[in-house]
Specification:
It is a single chain. The chain is α/β, with parallel strands linked by helices. It is about 30% helix and about 20% strand. It has a nine-stranded mixed beta sheet with strand order 1-2-3-5-4-6-7-8-9, sandwiched between helices. A hairpin with a 2-residue loop joins strand 2 and strand 3.
């Protein structure tokens, strides 16, 4: 597997377009783990074992096992309310552009919760592939947030994708960060599951937009948005593919604030007031689903397996180094059982922040998997 850092160092003085060319080369290699991690599965319990210990041997077995995994996680995370179908975007304002138009749109993403985001629509005929981008607020991904290398929606629109940029603006401001259903004082969903439900409602609304091909909608996010994109794509199977930007793809209490699933706005929900947030004491005092998941020996690789055979890319930084292949290999094994190869990919860089090359690989990933009308592709 090629190293992002080495490639980036080699192209800093290169001609324009070099990074895009390098990203395509890297994408070809990043579905193969380094030799040290090839066919290494760590201590994670195989998703190809039923909870009673029976083995998954066929695709039909996998469908039953997949339903078993989903049912167990739903019992811990909470049951979603009925999805909001049939709604269309309310257009708040419009900013025409040279290559695409930018709209501020409003819609309901939870039964009693309306949000606003930005919809970027390229000037290209016909139904187009689309990507939903997720972050703390929607301005950053359209280039209005002032954060370098996080303008994902803008760059995707430049490449011909319809892009819907969303974020939890209100709760980011009050430092509760997530979404809470039906309310923050009596939530019945773990917040990451509520976020996933909101993303599913966003998918439903975007799929009705006349210029979007509903079979070719992906999702991506970085950090907080990476966790959100991971849960959304794993729990809502209509997402065709996904990019998870250094979210912490498995539980890891050694990574501190980067992989802090125990926080009450992720998987450790309890009614406010909250204590020990953003502190080293957080894991020891965790409540909600997180301590139950840890006690039962469950980890996020079970959710990853729900993606199969849909492709996903881990854009890894300091939270997700090459050693994460020991978890990702379990989804590789599920795909192999189903007859698919090269559906799990990971790039690595030393820092948490995305950089221009890691982003180019993410965009190349979407170009590969959403450019066809059959995003699942053919079996190998």
């Amino acid at each position: 597997m090629l190293c992002l850092g080495a490639l980036l160092a080699g192209c800093t003085a290169a001609a324009p377009g070099t990074e895009r060319s390098l990203s395509r080369r890297l994408l070809d290699s990043c579905s193969k783990p380094p030799e040290a991690y090839r066919d290494v599965y760590g201590e994670y319990r195989s998703p190809l074992l039923f909870y009673n210990g029976d083995s998954v041997r066929t695709a039909a077995d996998w469908e039953r096992r997949r339903a078993e995994i989903r049912a167990r996680w739903d019992s811990l995370l909470g049951a979603w309310p009925p999805l909001i179908t049939g709604q269309r975007f309310e257009f708040v304002d419009t900013l025409p552009g040279a290559g695409f138009d930018r709209y501020r749109v409003r819609f309901r993403w939870l039964p009693a919760d309306t949000t606003e985001g930005y919809l970027l629509v390229p000037h290209r005929a016909g139904r187009k592939p689309a990507v939903i981008t997720l972050f703390y607020e929607p301005k950053t991904a359209v280039g209005l947030g002032g954060k370098p290398c996080r303008d994902f929606a803008l760059r995707l629109a430049e490449r011909g994708f319809v892009a819907l940029s969303l974020g939890t603006t209100r709760t980011t401001r009050n430092r509760t960060y997530s979404l809470y259903y039906p309310s923050i004082d009596r939530a019945t969903l773990q917040p990451l599951s509520a976020l996933a439900c909101a993303a599913a409602n966003a998918w439903e609304t975007l799929a009705r937009f006349p210029e979007v091909d509903s079979t070719r909608i992906g999702v991506m996010g970085h950090s907080y948005g990476g966790k959100w994109a991971m849960f959304a794509s794993c729990l809502w199977e209509k997402f065709a593919c996904a990019v998870w930007g250094d979210p912490g793809v498995v539980f890891d209490e050694t990574k501190g604030g980067y992989v802090n699933y125990w926080e009450p706005w992720y998987l450790g929900y309890y009614p406010p007031p909250w204590e020990h947030t953003w502190s080293d004491e957080g894991p020891a005092n965790a409540r909600g689903a997180y301590p139950v998941l840890r006690r039962e020996g469950r980890d996020l690789h079970e959710l990853h397996a729900l993606m199969a055979p849909r492709p996903f890319l881990v854009s890894g930084g300091c939270a997700d180094g090459p050693e994460r292949w020991t978890a990702l290999n379990h989804t590789v094994a599920v795909n192999r059982l189903l007859g698919y190869e090269d559906r799990v990919a990971m790039t690595n860089r030393p820092l948490h922040d995305p950089d221009s090359l890691s982003n180019e690989v993410a965009y190349a990933f979407f170009e590969r998997w959403l450019s066809s009308e059959d995003p699942k592709g053919q079996k190998e």
